[in-house]
């Protein structure tokens, strides 16, 4: 028989096992051996391309937390007082990786898991649009072992518990640019996927680019811990940087957001805050109830710098007043459900596989520019000409873009499912997909 005294000790034992936050570096602008990766010098200082509302856009992603839970964090509440709380911000699906992919390429291509994917080089990303206008960019990944690392994860010494085994602080699924061959196949682009020691060097040299994506490690982003742990990290990392003009000047817009919520049974609402010197004083401490998704970060950047578009979920003719348009008013029951997972046909969905298709060439860019198309993309394969989805799992096959080595997207051999089965599946999930296309590309209102 288990004694009551033993049961009473269980909470204390569990508490003792829970990791306690320890800053991995003395400050956000200090290098640290806890990051493993060496400093690789600084990025070259680029000529600043002026934007309509901001000259630098930095997004920082935290993990797997419901809106109501994030609202209990004193740190998030205090940060919201310094910026604009987006009360109707939504992730686009579950689990983590497809949300990160969507933030880079304007789609998650049916992905419904966290597996290893190499999205073909003829599929464009925001990097193509930025570089077309000479807007500099970089991604900073905490505990990345070296710049441009493409492995599935990386274990390093456990700085939170030196007596414990090495820990997988870094994971590929939270690193959006490394998912795309159009970035990893170009050495100059691959080198811009950098570690946090590089981040410290770049800040100190005033060399932070104009478009920045930041991913904390698996402890600091709340994935393997909780909102309180992530809040402690923000207090040690982000809060000091808000007072550093090399990181945050009066033309900097910062998006602090979550990849997805934790509870799949409710819609995918996430806690998001707009911060930075670009926020006018009159808007600090306010809320914005506009319906936003991860695609809004793309359309906002496109609108700000007058970029082209990807012709995917980043496109919508309704954009913010600041750039001469108006966002859609999506509220209540009109907000589409984005808490589904694995139900959208796409080239990264083995249950409902269809090939990669060309972007919508008639799409309207928030920035007014043309749709960017890679030279090798077959424009004849459109959403309208795709075949019915194929269940590759039933055929004991995998999607062509999964795993090593990098591959191209061709429909694999094998019998197709019946037209009726494939068509019904596509119709059912397509209604949600179309709703997101129509409403998910609003532009942040910061003026």
UniProtKB/TrEMBL annotation:
Keywords: Hydrolase, Signal. This is Phosphoesterase family-domain-containing protein. One of its GO terms (biological process) is phospholipid catabolic process. The keyword Hydrolase applies. It comes from Cristinia sonorae. PANTHER family: ACID PHOSPHATASE PHOA (AFU_ORTHOLOGUE AFUA_1G03570) (PTHR31956:SF8), NON-SPECIFIC PHOSPHOLIPASE C4-RELATED (PTHR31956). InterPro entries: Alkaline_phosphatase_core_sf (IPR017850), Phosphoesterase (IPR007312). The keyword Signal applies. One of its GO terms (molecular function) is hydrolase activity, acting on ester bonds. Pfam families: Phosphoesterase (PF04185). Residues 1-15 form the signal peptide.
